[in-house]
Amino acid sequence: MVNYVDDEPVMVQAKALVKRFGEFEAVRGIDVEVRRGEAFGFLGPNGAGKSSTMRMIACVSPRTDGDLRVLGMDPNVDGPKIRARLGVVPQQDNLDNELTVRQNLQVYGRYFGLSRAHVRRKAVELMEFAQLTDRAEDEVEPLSGGMKRRLTIARSLVNDPELLLLDEPTTGLDPQARHLLWDRLFRLKANGVTLIITTHYMDEAEQLCDRLVVMDGGRIVADGSPAELIARHSTREVLELRFPPGEQASTAHKVEDLADRVEVLPDRVLLYTQAGEAALEQVHARGVRPVSSLVRRSSLEDVFLRLTGRTLVD
Amino acid sequence: MATVESTGRVVGPWRAAWLRVEGYWTWYRRYWTSNLYSSGLQPVLFLAAMGLGFGSQVQAGQATGGLSYLHYVAPALLVSGALQIAVGESSYGVLSGFKWQRDYVAATATPITPGQVLGGQLIWVTLRLTISGAAYAVIAVAFGAWMNFGAVLVVLVGTITGLACATPVMTMAATTFDEGERFGLLFRFVVIPMTLLAGTFFPISQLPIALRWFAWISPLWHGNELARGVTLGGIGALEMLAHFGFLVAVFAVGALAARKYFYRRLVV
Fold this sequence. Notes:
- The complex is a heterodimer of chains A (314) and B (268).
- Chain A is built from 11 helices and 13 strands.
- Chain A has helices spanning 50-57, 75-83, 101-110, 116-129, 145-156, 175-190, 202-208, 226-233, 248-255, 276-285, 300-308; strands spanning 10-21, 24-35, 39-43, 65-70, 86-89, 163-167, 194-199, 211-216, 219-224, 237-242, 261-264, 269-273, 292-297.
- In chain A, the strands form 3 sheets. In chain A, strands 5-6-7-3-8-9 form a 6-stranded mixed β-sheet, sandwiched between helices. In chain A, strands 11-12-10-13 form a 4-stranded antiparallel β-sheet, covered by helices on one side. In chain A, strands 2-1-4 form a 3-stranded antiparallel β-sheet, covered by helices on one side.
- Chain B has one domain.
- Chain B has helices spanning 13-53, 69-90, 92-98, 103-107, 114-142, 150-174, 181-197, 209-217, 219-232, 237-266.
- Chain A binds chain B through residues 21, 36-37, 55, 58, 60-62, 79-81, 83-86, 88, 90, 92, 94-99, 103, 106-108, 110-114, 118, 129, 157, 159-162, 188, 191-194, and chain B through 1-11, 15-16, 19-20, 22-23, 26-27, 30-31, 101-103, 105-113, 266-268.
């Protein structure tokens, strides 16, 4: 399949990229290519090496081995030059809590060599974008988590970055705040900003990413679009059955021949099948009575489970 | 939010450090009253209590170089005030940049480098020391604490002494990963003894010889001697140069070490 972005310039290229901290190998030789206009995701559980990779791309963490080019340049040589054209949303907010919303944007914008007049204009535009205009003169400290996150994203856009790096952008936010944030990221994407996102939420990856890699233990275990990954590594539907505690394993073997594959989790049994409803009828026909049942589409969570034998969110 | 070309660019190293100062200044404009109160007023309280109050009971004599105690103690109180500010800013202030406020982390995600972050912090401390020192100097005029315009140079000596204390403490902060418990020890076992024993309130000739080494290696003693030298006289140019040289050396060694550990902490 020819991808529509194949002609676009390469924004990030990693070859056999390695990051070690002493004895610990956080990133174990990964190959990644991100082209302009893509929304690219690193999906994986905590400790998979996503953030380490992200920090190398953000030019704040030198690689241990392998090769890395960001915007066509080597971070080891041209770190500041690359950073001038990046937007970075760190995992942990580092806003200036004692300054106002507006001051945060203006002060940060100046670090990119922008004029005072420019950052004043830009701050107004970004507060509008982040829906923080009515909090412009408020200090950051009392703002809600969602507002702080939106301000961090607004701040990362102050230099009109060509590449935006978002490390776990919605971790710790309530569902409403997450959806608002996703909406803002969609707009950026629609405007052609290249996004690189790390997340351990499969719904976030499905929502936002055109293409993603699944990382586990410092390695890439699969890559493709969310739909491709699901088609390749899972079935169309999943039947979830819940049984009283302790009965999952003993009941599972009574129904395991009804599906292509069965996963027994501590709280439920997953039956991977092309037709979930039909499988559920057969389960009932055998006299197996689950406490509850659910038929759903396969998700990236299932892909991850298949590839690593573990669930994403612990 | 165009993506064709970013508006960001790399600025020169001095400009970058100065942009950080702009950020501090934005903060200072919001909080300067409470700040000046703690940093500028404290030495003034000392001047009132020690210079006027306690000083009224002190005979001018050999130890004070024949001067009134107010004149004797005023320059040194500016310098020891500078020590307090410098250590405060460089300990918790710097650790916060790495750990709590994390503004160092935020700034180094931009074209600004860890070395420029350190530079900005040092310029900022320089400004803080000078502002506070000047405020003290002006108020001290009303106390009749100055004998001549050498007071202006005392402000400068205060700033230099503060900077000599700042860089080693910044190095310490850059290598602190806990909640800064060691700063409590620093204040208790270094800053306070230094303030009491390093020639601020009485000449170190009054110390037992076994304790004098502590004064000799402390930047504060060199600062105090220099501060008195530039306004009260009594020491030669060569001696002043030696004190100045000591302070510059401590500053420089501290700055090089701080730079190393700023990079080590921010580029991992």
